[in-house]
Write a structure and sequence with these properties.
The protein has two domains: about 120 residues, Roll (Urease, subunit C, domain 1); about 325 residues, Metal-dependent hydrolases (TIM Barrel, Alpha-Beta Barrel), CATH 3.20.20. It is built from 18 helices and 21 strands. The protein is of the alpha/beta class.
């Protein structure tokens, strides 16, 4: 039963391509290259495996797949549409593993600077987000929690049917949350039977993964994991009431963000199945070094149980007010209210003594943990989490994640692998996406420059190939100017 469902789950991503469905007029607005046979010549190939770059190569694309990677001195196939990419690099399409079709439009605060009841709200941006992801080179993504699951499912279907542009989407079901949530858009689950029924229902509706949230209890989380696994689906978690070691013992597949901001196991005198007071988690990690025996033991346990960690460094960088502001290009894409809200939150943070230095230190510690986790054999995957204080945009955050991984100590080749092939491996789809090799889907990103020497070149996206169609990133971005946060 599990194998059958998993095969259906994998097949869903390429239903349109398999049926030979043609792009709609709306999608064609953004396509630069749609020839069935394309040769990318004189290009630097960074294949996503971590292997050294291959200089002066030709990549042949036929009918939506990679047919061959050859020396550029080999003549392209007869009849091929030839694109000379001298001075360019090609990498696999990014696999975004903590991405959303929602955003923070406005951080609602009262006169005391606090968030009043009923809590924090986010806005679905199902029009702008898919275009921004694709423009940045994200060809596959996981929503990693949904506030409008039916919207996300319908967007996935319309993308798969070539009615609208966007990446292939693994739709995570609605958040599995516990009592006293500060997100009223989330499901509240306090009984194991309710958790099982929720997982069953959304698996039946087409969700292809699940995400547990901060207030969920151990019994409820355990029931959700067990039920999801019966459907052949995986569960990730941004946890708090349940710590990392407890979740790993319950069989969770993935943990979001890394532990410095989310793992509560080192908080003193905490109550079982309760999320500690705000700030307690970070304070507990400030007292520990990454090479300490207890942290090494945590890493060893996660690696042994094959629990993946999702790096989401951009969302934490956005909370460091001394880090660079968003670029003018990104600001122009945001709605006025979304931009105002983010800048206000950033300015408010600068008034708190010592806040910037503390956040910077925590960010560096999280980077150190992720490096140690990978060096110990752990599977690190990547995504930007475009929520937080509104300073992490879809797509742009995915590019920034790769740069921050390099800042963390990974080589550019390692960082690119984490953002591509590692995600494909976690999803069980490394045979079709995540690296550049004959037979795989033609999901590729053409970059001006060489990100192995200058990782900032990851931002210089000139063409994005998805299923063999070459999209124009500039046109995709221009189509959503001023919309991020509202549409």
């Amino acid at each position: 039963m599990r194998r059958h469902i998993k095969l259906v789950y994998v097949a869903m991503f390429f239903s349109a391509a398999a049926q030979g469905q043609a792009p709609s007029a709306e999608v064609r607005k953004f396509i630069q290259h749609d020839q069935p046979l394309i040769a990318l010549t004189h290009v630097r190939v960074i294949d996503g495996t971590g292997a050294p770059a291959q200089e002066d190569r030709t990549v042949v694309l036929r009918d939506g797949r990679i047919e061959a990677v050859t020396d550029a001195r080999t003549a392209p196939p007869k009849g091929a549409h030839v694109i000379d990419l001298t001075g360019r690099s090609v990498i696999p399409g990014l696999v975004g593993m903590h991405n959303h079709l929602m955003y923070v439009e406005s951080i609602n605060r009262d006169e005391d600077g606090k968030t009043p009841p009923p809590g924090v709200f986010v806005t679905e941006i199902a029009f702008s987000a898919p275009r921004l992801y694709l423009a940045a080179g994200v060809t596959t993504m996981r929503t990693t929690g949904s506030v409008e699951p039916y919207t996300d499912l319908n967007i996935r279907r319309q993308i798969d049917e070539f009615k609208i542009p966007g990446p292939h989407i693994d739709v995570t079901g609605p958040y599995l949350e516990g009592k006293d949530t500060f997100f009223p858009q989330m499901a509240v689950l306090t009984e194991t039977d309710h958790a099982r029924k929720t997982v069953d229902f959304w698996a039946g509706e087409g969700a292809t993964s699940f995400k547990a949230y901060m207030k969920i209890s151990r019994p409820v989380l355990g029931a959700a994991i067990e039920q999801a696994h019966k459907h052949g689906l995986k569960v990730t978690g941004h946890l708090c009431a349940v710590d990392y070691r407890q979740a790993a013992a319950l069989g969770i597949d993935n943990l979001e963000h890394g532990p410095v901001f989310t793992d509560t196991e080192f908080v003193a005198n905490r109550n079982p199945d309760e999320c500690p007071a705000s700030g307690a988690v970070a304070a507990s990690w400030e007292q520990r070094e990454i090479d300490s025996p207890e942290v090494r033991a945590l890493i060893a346990d996660l690696v042994a149980r094959k629990v993946a960690i999702t790096s989401t460094l951009p969302v934490f960088e956005a909370f460091v007010p001394t880090r660079p502001l968003l670029s003018r290009k990104q600001m122009a894409l945001m709605s006025p209210e979304a931009l105002r809200s983010h800048l206000e939150a950033r300015a408010l943070a600068t008034t708190v003594p010592g806040y910037a230095a503390r956040q910077e230190a925590l960010l560096k510690k999280e980077m150190a943990f992720e490096l140690a986790f990978v060096r110990a054999g752990g599977l690190l995957i990547a995504g930007p989490d475009p929520t937080g204080n509104g300073g992490t945009l879809p797509g742009f955050g995915d590019q920034r994640e790769v740069q921050l991984l390099v800042e963390a100590g990974f080589t550019p080749l390692e960082a690119i692998r984490i953002a591509t092939l590692n995600g494909a491996q976690y999803m069980g789809r490394a045979d079709s996406i995540g690296s550049i090799a004959p037979g795989k889907h033609a999901d590729l990103v053409v970059l001006k420059g060489d990100p192995t020497r200058r990782i900032a070149d990851i931002e210089n996206v000139e063409i994005v190939f998805k299923d063999g169609y070459g999209y124009d990133p500039a046109k995709l971005n221009a189509s959503v100017r001023g919309m991020v946060g509202i549409r």
